[in-house]
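Re: the pair you flagged

First of the two:
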Amino acid sequence: MPMNEIQKAILKTLIYYDLFDWPANLSELTSFLIGEKATCGMVEKQLQVLAARQKVSTQDGFWMLKDRNEIVPERLKKEKEAQRKLKIARKAAAVLKIIPWIEMVAISGTLAVGGAKEDDDIDIFILTQTGRLYLSRLFEFLLLTLLGKRRRPRTTKVKDKICPNLYLDYEGLLVAENLCAAHDLVRLKPLWERNGAYRKLLEANLWYQNYFPNRQPRHCDPPAGGEAIPSVLPHSNGILKQVQDDKEQARDDGVGTGLRIFGDWFESLARKLELRYLQSKKTSERISAHTLYFHPQDVYPKILKEFQKRILPLDKK
């Protein structure tokens, strides 16, 4: 009997998570079901069908591809380690609150999904006010470095070190459109935010619903620090205008034109210093006036290639 679309979506989702040795529970499978809208009950029903056909396995409330049960104890171990690292991340993020131009600090990467290995560093995502990206990074760099919490470039001793690997400002909200980027976006764990920053980020990138239609902005997880995220309509299209209005209001409500000019000059200086510094350490960074993406290796192409290879038989059915 041919598989229906929900069954295919379930297998695609399990294949994606299998690339990271991560079994998924029913809630995760429903929230992050790739490419299909379905309720929790619908997903559960189709999981039972797939299990009867020996396409998937289940253990301790987790679902995975057939004969991959060994990844369940690994997940439990990673979850325990993640809780320890989350405490470290919260303390570091709290320090960054004194930088007035930072709008949000969020956990990204595997820790945001809920797992971590003992020797892993801690990836964080930083969203800033428009025109204050490089200034924010400069002060973040100084603060975390002075406190001994920041990961140093090209070092192998990264355990528990904070690694800010993505910076955006409000004019850089739109991110690359692919499955990996969509997944990282909806799995972000804000530690704290100002001015509805996470909501603005999600609403500016509603394309992610092409990959995860069950994951609406109002359903995304609240900050790991406990601050609630405002509910929003899933198809609001006024977010970029709202961001611009916020920017103009911030200029009008500031402490004066003189300080703004000084801030702009300082931002320009910080950017020149940063670009000069990065020239000697450049690997696969993506740099613009509104975006800083740091990663020693861009893993998206490799992940997407392997994912497409493994789902090819499903698309032919």
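Second of the two:
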Amino acid sequence: MSTNFKLRNFANPATLKAIARPLLIQFLQRYGDFFAGRHLNMHAGDGFDYDHLASILMSPDEDTPEELLDALFFIDEMSMPQYYDDLVNKMASAGINPGTLPEPTGADLAVAIWLASPSLLESLHAEQFMVRAKKFDSFLSTGTTIPPLTHPTASVLKALEDNLNHWFETKKRGRGTKVFVFMRDGVAWFLVRHGEPYKREGTLKNGESSSIFYRPEKFDVLMYNPEIGEFSIHTSTKSEKKAYCKYFGRHLFGNELMFDIDRSGEKYTLEPLRNDFMKACVSSCG
């Protein structure tokens, strides 16, 4: 997780006050030692210092727990108004009790889901990246028959993530790769979260010039259409596309040469016209 992320909602004390205080305190207590070290009194009742909490959350440093940074990032991202219905539906489908809140805010729902199942909120956040991807490169199956695709098991995903972790690590992008799977209308969507090369940026710490060294996070979107055997990839580098073709082919189909890496985007071919123009014309005209 990037350590220089900006918290849109938690930066505002008024927004923090919109979170039901019992729910907020329950969340903060998971990191009690950290907040106690920053002199936040969680037992102040109506005198709870939201301004002080906002200043703590807006100034993460080297001592901030990684788990807290993850929680803040996902809760903040999913507290946006456009995700409210998704949060409500996810809570209902997962059987999460919203408690006694008659009219929960988006942040209430995000915090409640995180407290019940962090991976559930993380998965919901991952789904949002699928709709943002616009440009895909397509790779077709090399086989004469198109194999079906079943939802990969946890062990298959673990083996896939292990291979991707090793590959990204050799490319100076670190470990921590996570693959999310979503089935929609017969098409398998995959979202791959991984690290980018380290970045260094200037910062101010205790009024002094300093710097922060961190690894940015990146999301790649992939999808497989079993009707036509097409594997589509939205990422930034050619080497990543080759790695995805190789490792997804290996673990999902037992064939790391499943997709033709050298013929990206060639959905259609004019080869029949080149080889036998008259026969192709007769076939097309019936």
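Residues 126 and 191 are 7 Å apart (CA to CA).

-B.
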